[in-house]
Every structure is written in structure tokens, then in C-alpha cells.
Amino acid sequence: MNKTRRMSGFKENLCNLCGECFHLCPVLQLPIEEAKKEIKNLIEGEESQYVLSNCNTCLSCNLYCPQNANPYQLILERWNDLYKKRAAPPLYRFVCPTKQSNIWQLLNIFLSNQERRWIYNWMHYIPEADDTPLLIGNYTHLFPFIIGESKLLDNFKPIDRIDQWEGGAYLYQGGYLDVVQRIAHRTKKDFDNWGVKNVVACLDAVEYIFKEVHPKEMGVNHTQNFINFNQWLLDNIDSGEIKLKNQINMTVTVHDNCYSKALGGAYWEVSREILKRCGCQISEMKHNRKDSLCCGFGAGASWTKNISIIFDIISEGMKKFKEAEETNAKALISYCGGCIYLLWATRELIRSKIDIFHVIEIVRMAMGEKLNYPEDHITRAWDIIAIMTYSLILSFFNKNFYIDEITYNKDLSTFTPKKYRLLKIIRYTMDFPLIKSLFAKGFHLLRKILKSK
Ligand code: SF4
Ligand code: SF4
């Protein structure tokens, strides 16, 4: 494997220590003098009082910086330093496909037969040079029903390589930059071996990682052309290739994910235009576009105690629901599959009534395709809640760890499921409404107790 130098995206020479980044941050909102002190400390590698332990990795500060210095990337660098010192928390095994009992391995016991068939085909197909692979990705893998049966897939070869780690997108957000660089090399090898010219990713985040982060920060240049799936949807709706038979007359509010801010906002309007073409009216949340709050996932990046990670994530997600409900919209729409599974889990835990759709599902409904909505999502949300609970219990018996392997071994030992008796019992109990309700209450009680400490 070629060794290339990693380059920080933070432009120290442009930063004038004005502090605007952390002063305007929707999460920290530091008084300006504190903000100035904090950026100085981060640059000098001194102790950070607020940012490294509270940042939600939402990316907004890059848009607030009048100097285009990319303070977000400075935070990532400092988390990377912390990772080298203290390693990753035990619970992070949850999203590491090469560690035992990760979410994809655990979820195998809950997938329907139809889902297993889709996933088997997507995981085993080896693309040919003329193919246009659509990277299903780690997160869409968790709810393959949003796209598995759709005619939209006729235009691509769906490929599901969980150990491509979404190109490193979610590790990047956690500041695991040295690992992301290894993934950049690995994905380059895959794409070059396939010989494909075009690659489509289900997530904007993954397109951005391949197009911007790998070459500019990881020193890895891909020769493929990366196509944005949402843009492809919009273009094909406008050209008439995708025929919308129904107008979905629904007021919706739009969740702008953290990565949507990465190209200065290039991703914000595409999904809104798709929704309008499908007949939706949009009612915006208080924080939207450059100020948008994270779905909650980013709260895990600034972890300080393993036990609090899940509770911090849900607490942040609850802010999003509060804003979404205040709009009186019928549904909250996400155009990021990474956010959907957390939003659904949070919805079930806080017993919110707002509907949640992926933008792909809205297009499919407008195309006249049938969804098993909301049943599929509710079932999967409780699968995920059971997996999170089980993973939290397992994490008490594990230590902090380093991400050594990034590629599956030949027998896919960290994908192949085991018996998981305790997980099955936890999930079984969650089929009872009373247990669901007691679980949600107990969860919030624990969340409040941990928050008060
Ligand atoms: S990434 Fe978001 S939460 Fe973190 S400091 Fe920047 S604006 Fe604040
Ligand atoms: S990163 Fe930008 S906003 Fe933050 S202190 Fe430096 S110049 Fe100011």
C-alpha cells in the first residue's frame, strides 16, 4: 500500500483567532472571549475546555468562519490526537465492521428473508468495468427496504461492501483520521480493480469523502467520476425518466445532515427541489441549512464516558424532534441514510408522532411504488434499540481499543452472526407495548441521571 502524507484541512495561516466559529456554534454558543481562548488552545494543542467534549461534529463552524480557515478540521485533528492516546471507547465496536458484535453482524438475526436475499446479492456481486455501481453503504444496509424493491435500482448495480466503511465518512466525523486514510487506499484499490468509470453513493457524505477528503486531506486520488444520487434523482425527475404518477400532498420539514454543509451548502436545495416535485410543501425548522442541528449521532464523537454515549446521542436527537414538531409538519424528511436509523430510534424512545421518511421513499411513493410504511421502520427501530442496549451491556466487559483491521477476513467472521441469546430475549420483550413504554421511561430516567452527573 502506498504511504501518502495526510494533510490537515485546517488553514492555520488564515485563522485570525476571532472566535466567531465557537461563538456562533449552535451547540456551544461560547461567549466571544471564551471562544477566542478555545480556538487558541486547540491550535496550540493545549487543553480544550468545551469543544472536544461537547462538539456535535455538525460542521457549521466552517460556514461561520469569515476566513475560510476550516475550524471543523482542527477539531478532527485534535480528536485524532486523543484517539492515539486513549483509543476508541468500547461501545464504538458497534460501528466497526471488523470487530465482533458490530451492528451489521447483530442485525443479521433480525433481517427478513427478502432483506437477506437483497443483501447477499449486493455483497457478492463483483462489478464489471461497464457497470455503474451504486454503493448501498453501511447505513442504507440497515434498512434495505427503503430501496430494495424499487425500480430505481434498475439503473445501477447495487454494491454493498460494509468494510468500505462508507469511504470513512463516519470515522472522519469522529476524528479517526489515520484510519480514514487507510480506508481511502482500500477503496481506491477496490474501484481500480473493478475498473469502473462511474461510482454513485447513496449518501452525499460519501460522495464528498471520495471527491474532496480523500484527495485533499488523505493524499489519495480516485480516477472515477462520482455521481451524487440525489442530484441524479432530481435530474431524472426533470427529464421525465423517473415518472411521478402521484403528488404527495404533505407538509414536511427537512433535516439537513452535518455533511450537507460540507460544500458550502451545495446539497441543501437538491432534496428540497425533489420534495417539491413530489408535491410536498416545506415548513422549515428554526435551525436549518447552515445552522442545522445534528440528528444526534455527532454527540458520540465528543465522548468522555463510554456509558453516556448513547444517552448523549438521544439527548441531542431530541432537540431535532422538538424543532421538527414545532413546525407542525406531518413528516420529517432526511436525505441521509445515516441519520434515518437514529431518528427512528429516537422517535420510538420519545414516543413522537411525527412521521419520518427518507427522501427516496417520498420519490417512490410519488412513482406509485408501495411501501410497508411505517411498520418496516418501527420494527427496525426496535431492532436497533435492542442492538444498542445489548452493545451497551457488552461494552461494560470490553476495554478501549484501536481499529487495527479495516478489511473483512476471508470467512467474513465479523459479519457472520452468532447465537446472541441475550439479544434475542431483549428484542422479544420489546414486542410488547407495555415493555416498550417501560423501556422508554427507564431510558429517559437513566438519561437524566447521567446528565445530572
Ligand atoms: S462542528 Fe458544530 S458543534 Fe462542533 S464546534 Fe463546529 S459548529 Fe459547533
Ligand atoms: S477558525 Fe475562523 S472563525 Fe474560528 S477563530 Fe479562526 S478565523 Fe475566526
What does this 3D model show about the protein?
Helix 15 (337-350) links the parallel strand 7 (331-334) and strand 8. The protein has helices spanning 20-24, 32-44, 51-54, 60-64, 71-86, 103-107, 113-124, 137-140, 169-173, 177-194, 204-217, 229-238, 268-277, 309-326, 337-350, 359-367, 375-395, 421-429, 433-452, and strands at 133-135, 157-159, 198-201, 225-228, 250-255, 280-282, 331-334, 355-358. The protein is globular and about 55 Å long. The chain folds into two domains: 12-75, no CATH class; 91-402 and 409-452, no CATH class. The strands form two sheets. It has a four-stranded parallel sheet with strand order 2-1-3-4. Strands 6-5-7-8 form a four-stranded parallel sheet. With 453 residues, it is of the alpha/beta class. Helix 14 (309-326) crosses helix 15 (337-350). The chain starts with 19 loop residues before the first helix and ends with a helix.
Which helices and strands appear, and what pairs or packs with what?
Blueprint: H1 20-24, H2 32-44, H3 51-54, H4 60-64, H5 71-86, H6 103-107, H7 113-124, E1 133-135, H8 137-140, E2 157-159, H9 169-173, H10 177-194, E3 198-201, H11 204-217, E4 225-228, H12 229-238, E5 250-255, H13 268-277, E6 280-282, H14 309-326, E7 331-334, H15 337-350, E8 355-358, H16 359-367, H17 375-395, H18 421-429, H19 433-452
Parallel strand pairs: 1-2, 1-3, 3-4, 5-6, 5-7, 7-8
The structure holds iron/sulfur cluster (2 copies).
One iron/sulfur cluster (SF4) binds next to helix 4.
Largest sheet: 4 strands, parallel
**What form results from the Cα inertia axes?**
globular
Into which percentage range does the β-strand content fall? 5-15%
Bound molecules: iron/sulfur cluster
